[in-house]
Amino acid sequence: MKQCEICGKGSSMAGKRVKLRGHYNPQAITRKHPNLQKTTLPSGKSVLACAQCIKTLAKKKA
Questions:
Q1: Nearest one of 36, 14, 38 to 27, comparing CA atoms
Q2: CB–CB of 26/19 below 8 Å?
Q3: C-alpha span between 34 and 36 (Å, rounded)
Q4: How confident is the model at residue 21 (pLDDT cuts 50, 70, 90)?
Q5: With CB atoms counted within 10 Å of each terminal CB, which end of the chain scores lower, N or C?
Q6: Separation CA 41–CA 29 (nearest Å)
Q7: CA gap 15, 56 in Å, rounded
Q8: For 9, what's the count of Cα atoms within 13 Å in the CB-facing half-sphere?
């Protein structure tokens, strides 16, 4: 399973419920994946990180 190497964020299961004429119709459960991208840490190491961690790294550099 792919996950962020900084914070450990991984995929999660998500489903939706549609209400039709007073009754809930459970739809198929799908897997939601994090937005993982290759980036380099200030130490020079290349890692897969989620978009939130990349934004945080950019703030720490400035």
A1: 14
A2: no
A3: 6
A4: confident
A5: C
A6: 35
A7: 29
A8: 15
| pTM metric for this prediction | 0.73
Question: Which own/partner contact pairs does 9-18 have at CB distance under 8 Å and 24+ positions apart?
Answer: 9/34, 9/50, 9/52, 10/34
CA atoms within 13 A on the CB side of 14: 7
Hey, where are the domains in the chain? Answer: 12-61
Structure tokens at 6: 């900084």
Task: Judge contact between 6 and 47, C-beta under 8 A.
Answer: yes
At residue 37, the pLDDT reads 96
State CA 20 to chain mean position distance. 31
Q: Are 55 and 37 in contact (CB under 8 A)?
A: no
